[in-house]
Amino acid sequence: MMKRRNRLGLLVASGLMWIVFPAASQTLVESVAGIVGNEVIYLSDVENAVLEIRRQGSRLPIDQIRCNSFHELLTSKLFVDQARLDSIQVTNDMVDSDLNMQINNAIRQAGSEKALEDYFKKSMVEIKMDIRKSMLENQLVQEVQNNIAKNLAITPSDVRRYFNSIPKDSLPVVPARVQISIIQIDPPDNEENKAEARQKLLDIRSQILAGKPFNMLAILYSEDGSAANGGEIGYKMRGELEKEYADAAWSLAKNTVSKIVETKYGFHLIQMIDRKGDLVNTRHILIRPKVKPEQIQRAISKLDSIARQIRKDSLKFTDAAVRFSTHSDSRINGGLFVSTNPSERITWFSLDELNKEMYMKVRDLKPGEISDPFQTTDEIGNTVFRIVKLDNEMPAHRANLKDDYQFMYNAAMMSERQKLYRDWIKKKIETTYIKISDEFKSCKFLEEGWLK
Q1: If exposure means fewest CB atoms within 10 Å of the residue's CB, which of 124, 137, 192, 209 is most exposed?
Q2: Which of 431, 320, 414 is CA-nearest to residue 82?
Q3: How far apart are CA 432 and CA 84, in angstroms?
Q4: Taking the CA of residue 212 as centre, how many other CA atoms within 13 Å lie in the half-sphere pointing to its CB?
């Protein structure tokens, strides 16, 4: 990629532009759709974007998709060129944790790796390189946009003015939301389950020490999303990891394997892959304690007894939550369920924000009613048992400031950011070298100052 960008001045012909690269025994010629500052947009970049949009089901005419894709690429390159001028850099480590998720989603949508390769007419290695390149550029764009909007602030008056500027029949519809409280208990006698999980990991560790590949065993046994990637989680700083995990990881030499490490997620074996300054790249195998049928029954019976007392008014839900619940975030609020995001602490949720088991229970409740006990998983994937109370509900409605201030604040802030970006783009176009291939000069958006 750097070789291409260093050879921008080699050849620019009238009409369609070409860049020529000498190779050992042949000359590779690739057409160029546009140049923005020091950044190049190849025709293949546009066609890849078109293929991706069509794969997602777009029914727009192909010429419109090509122009839209080219517009997005040109705009993105403006931000990338600014990142170069501002000496902003991103590394592979910054996107590796999300790269495999993107790859897996694409494979899942296509149906198989081969189907994805056949569609793009590329190998998985090439597809992965394209996705990585796109993610790195998106990260650069985000960094530049954050710099542009870093001093942006809006007041309640700004939010009100934004709300009043929207025609009443164009106000967004806010989906139905609920406010709920929960009482949660963990599996009884879970120490026995933990001991069995530890023993399973000890057996796996013995296989690793006997010579079996760690990544293969991670694929076979790990109960974590990283299993598909051989347990690898990418480069992380110490603060991004659970303390117990980080302490173990930082004590390992390259390619060595830890003893069993317990975190709130379960039990881990950790292998050190590489270390770069304050970053470590590790792979792990996670085993969670398994709950037995008799433990499930005991937990359900306990919660059923608590629910009966609450329904008979011999016990208040808030008091029961404080006394019995193991869900720390809600327990201190008398059971009130809150968002796990510490910057938001939202207490209203749309039903599709709840996990499947919570959704199935809440949808059938009326305000004030309590569900029967049920088994589910908590926010980090561990098996727990809950009863849920529907405290309040709000039907779907057109947005208003009284009930939806945060929603409208976010929309107003996004609107102001978009204005900043549009103004910045207009000025950036005026001061940046831009060259457009004749092949795209029929695109209407180019009339907005792109052609010089």
Answers
A1: 209
A2: 431
A3: 13
A4: 12
Spatial CB neighbours of 352, under 8 Å, sequence gap ≥ 6 = 175, 359
Give 140-162 pLDDT, tens digit per residue.
999 999 999 999 999 999 999 99
Pair (208, 268) in one structural domain = yes
pTM for the structure as a whole: 0.61
Report the amino acid identity of residue 57: G
CB-CB contact of 148 with 142 (8 Å): no
CA angle (406 as vertex; 402, 410 as ends), nearest 5: 135
176 has a pLDDT exceeding 50: yes
Q: Which two tokens stand for residue 424?
A: 């910045």
The one-letter code for the residue type at 416 is E
Asked if 268 and 324 sit in the same domain, the reply is no
In the Cβ-directed half-sphere of 385, how many Cα atoms lie within 13 Å?
Answer: 23
Report how far residue 138's alpha carbon sits from residue 51's, in angstroms, rounded to the nearest whole number: 19
Q: Is 41 helix (H, G, I), strand (E, B) or coil?
A: strand
Measured between alpha carbons, how far is 240 from 176 in angstroms, rounded to an integer? 34
> Looking at the domain assignment, is residue 31 inside a domain?
no
CA atoms of 308 and 324, how far apart (whole Å): 14
Whole-angstrom distance between the N-terminal and C-terminal Cα of the chain? 27
The most distant pair of C-alpha atoms in the chain lies apart, rounded to whole Å, by: 87
Could you tell me if 344 and 409 are in contact, meaning their C-beta atoms sit under 8 angstroms apart?
A: no
Cβ proximity of 92 and 136 under 8 Å: yes
| Nearest-angstrom CA–CA distance, 10 and 29 | 12
Q: Could you tell me which residue, 21 or 375, shows the higher pLDDT?
A: 375
Gyration radius of the chain over CA positions = 27
> 350 lies in a domain?
yes
CA distances from 354 to 21, 213, 334, 378 (A): 54, 38, 19, 11
- What values do phi and psi take at 126, rounded to 5? -70, -40
The residue to which tokens 């051989």 are assigned: 230
User: What type of residue is 125?
Assistant: V
Domains of the chain: total: 2
SS3 402: coil
Query: Which tokens in the block code for residue 112?
Result: 């198989």
CA distance 255 to 337: 42
* Judgement on whether residues 306 and 363 belong to the same structural domain of the protein: yes
What 3-state DSSP class applies to 10? coil
